[in-house]
Amino acid sequence: MTKPAPLTRDDVAHVAALARLELTDEELDLFTGQLAEVLDHAADVAALDLSDVAPTAHAMAVTNVLRPDEVRPVLDRDEVLAAAPSVEDHRFRVPRILGEAP
Amino acid sequence: MTAPRPTIGLANAVRSGGRSALEVVEEHLAAIEAGDGAIHAFNLVTADLARHQAGAVDRMVADGEDPGPLAGVPVALKDNLCTRGVPTTCSSRILAGWKPPYDATVVERLRAAGAVVVGKTNMDEFAMGSSTETSATGPTRNPHDTTRVPGGSSGGSAAAVAAGFVPLALGSDTGGSIRQPAALCGVVGLKPTYGTVSRYGLVAFASSLDQIGPFAATVADAALLFDVIGGHDPADSTSLNRPTPRVVSVLDDGVAGITVGVLTEFLDGAAPDVAARVHQAAEALAAAGARVEEVSVPEVTLGLSAYYLIAPGEASSNLARYDGVRYGLRVDSEDTATMNTATRSSGFGAEVKRRIMLGTYVLSAGYMDAYYNQALKVRTRIIEGFATAYRRYDVLLGPTTPTTAFPLGEKTADPLQMYLSDVCTIPTNLAGHPAISVPFGTGYDGLPVGVQLLGPALSEGTVMKVAAVVEAAAPTIGVPVLSGEARS
Amino acid sequence: MKPGWEMVIGLEVHCELRTATKLFCGCPNLFGDEPNTNVCPVCLGLPGSLPVLNQKAVELAMAIGTALNCEIRPSTFHRKNYFYPDQAKDYQISQYDEPINVDGYLDLPDGSRVGIERAHMEEDTGKTTHAGASGRIHGADYSLVDYNRSGVPLVEIVSAPDMRSSAQARAYATELRAMLVASGASDGKMEEGSMRVDANISVRRSSDDPFGTRCEIKNLNSVRSLGRAIEYEADRQIAIIETGESVVQQTRHWDEDAGRTQTLRSKEDAYDYRYFLEPDLVPLVPDGEWIRAVADTMGMMPAARRSRLVDLLDPAGEVSDSQADQVATVVDLGLDDLVIAAVANGVGSGLALARTANEAATDAEAARKVDPDSYVALLTMEDSGALTATQSKTVLADLLAAGGGDPAALAAAKGYEAMSEDSLASAVAEVVAAHPDAWGRYCSDDEGDRKKMAGMLTGLVMKATRGQADGKAVAAELQRLRG
Description:
The structure holds 3 protein chains of 3 kinds. Helices cover 37% and strands 9% of the residues of chain A. By secondary structure, chain A is mainly alpha-helical. In chain A, helix 1 crosses helix 2 (25-41). Chain C is α+β, with helices and mostly antiparallel strands. The radius of gyration of chain C is 29 Å and the shape is elongated. The model of chain C has no long low-confidence stretch (mean pLDDT 91). Chain C is built from 16 helices and 15 strands. In chain C, the strands form 3 sheets. Chain C has a 9-stranded mixed β-sheet with strand order 3-6-7-10-1-11-12-13-14. Chains in contact: A-B, A-C, B-C. Strand 1 of chain A pairs parallel with strand 2 of chain C, so a sheet runs across the interface.
């Protein structure tokens, strides 16, 4: 596996935006250094030739876990909406949405 | 020889009517009241609810019914286990005050077994940390030395058991978050096989690694709690639909004929006092009839790097839902995207942000193959490495942590150093295997040392009967002395 | 379509599956309920909740794959990560690089074949309504979210870019819809959003040219808008190319009222979804036995049902265009079983098809519910001459309105009685006597004249009997009188 390009401050800013996090300039500097250090530690993993190894996403090999198509109790709407920051007309209210879903 | 079972004795006393559950819970509530100011093991003590549950247990006994194997036993829950109507915060500002409308499966099973939930324990925010210092409610302190960390992320649960606030507690272990604080606090902590304990109602950190497990003062008590919470749950697709090992019944079987491999890679990084205790435990096992040898599993050295690619990757997705729309914190703004960003930036602490960004980065276009997918392949190699070892050995032995409890604040500025404290616990999570930390004397500083026993999937019975022998041979650890009367 | 150009069209169709519960939780899968009443921790994305796959949804997805001649494969679920308030977890669970169905095809009534690249499972989002004057996302002051639809099972069917005209795309959507309904997988209601179509369109000058740059058109809420949007978009792209510019790959929104497409976002805005394997679910590995069991429970697909009707009309498969249209209509509306039942009881196939495609089809919903025995009895009366065509149609309307009943009683209540042979003969005789010229021409050897006069005389008899006479009986009586 070729070594990936080193992490830059711009990468961190881009990733923060993707993750909907806003960082101050100081945080950006701090996190860039810290994350670069962690990724550098992971360079041993990135450098291994594992082209013939299958990935493991689940440690325990289980397949076909299904449930019957039977209706189960729903939550009480008042209890659900009581947890919400803002509610109107039995719906969750959010500020204006600037665009369609990506 | 019989492994000590204080909790089983307590439950049996309540079941037989010898002690009232209410009296038991009042004693423990008093201990918490007196001692937790110095420790901060709890985010929330649910005294009224506990009294209510204890009263119900007592009524069952009076009516001639059996409340179950944990009758009247006070239990503390890590604050990432959902409790209906009771705040569940993950020690995060973003979930402050959130009351789940449902109970986690383990909480239902505890209630059905007659246990009494006394509160929610402090933790690293969203279980991300190794010292309980990333908690938004402030750190928990180690009952053995309040200038030291209790470990993490389940530091509150470990400290609550160590301080005698509760005989039993539940934690969650993604990369060592049960075993590492158990070791640093001098209690027993079990990370069960992935899939043996339902994750339904456990607020996710890294779904393919998270597993709920018990804390207790003794191996037998941990086994009892594991037997109660384990077993198939149709609400968790990764829950194993096969018989879960029943552990309590095999604890006193001894280790004659058992083969134990002492894991050299784990010893290499351990402090000398910790390594010495591991060798001492190995000698005790040999003396008890086990065949003990050193074994190398080189793949485990890749664990830390793989873990810090996989766990943040999953976490970055699991924590996306904290967006200020449906529950929890909202920091209002002109538009929804800005509101999401303002909410998350204000609601998450630095460590959570770091891991979300790391995880987002390793999953992002252009880096996915080099980091995340590569780490999943390393995971395969680690599983293969363990499999080779388990063809020769029933269990593996090593330290739980490289050192004893470190001072508060020592590693908070250096995330990588903090991550390194999980180097001995992480490989087990990547493999999905069980492992237990058992207290084994103290280090040069007088603080507890934990030794770790690891086994292949579903070997809880073997791992814990070996642990019981280690426990029996362990040098004693001083009882923490807290202000006020801490122990009932 | 401008001459000298060819369209290349591929369609992505999302259809909601007809399950009792959602894809990953036991909440009811119902349209139109009070907001946020069909929700639970899983479909609200509450912390700690976990998905468990609905077996029925998997079987309906397999049924779709079977009907589309797909290979049904071991499959996995991924997380598609993006922030949006209708997405309860801020990721969508969807099949990504290992979908359950791949490499199939759908044959259209005109004989053309459209390839199916994949048909995969995924979950639907909640529903957002925009508060403010426009009711649309732009200009809204704020929005409200209802999660009843969150987690409803969807299958997304992705065609190959095999279609070359808007008519073919419309035929594909129509045929796919009929197939989804026939397989029991979906109710196919585009107006309720249970079937949603996105179109990928490009244009090129010749079929030898490589594909042009494509645009994806969203918000197509009917087969008609699909056709209109494709025509508009193809013209737009051609105009761009003819002025020497290049088409920009982008996603566009169809504005039904304005009759045009508008830019939604361009390819440069391509979102980084960070797909990764959903750790809360396990792989799905259907074995041959399960796949066969699902196939065995499926009803006949539209193509098979059409050929069943064609066989009834003409075993050699030679039917007129108008009858082919009637066949397509009754199958599309799910009324073919009525035709089959009528023919099985001795009704002429032409009559059974015509009455079903022309009259019953005007109220298909009622016709699907009508008692087949009543329907067959009515057509039998008409076929035997007990009722005239006009009377039969009137009684049919009553029958559909009532959901069934005794057609003889309904006819009697209207005062319809078949005319006796004697009164029919005298009515014909009276008309012949009153119109000697017409009769004379009818009796002539001029074939055209005779046909024309037969129609006229029959009409006069019908008028004189106020529609009670049966047209065929009148024709026979005229023939008899002529000798």
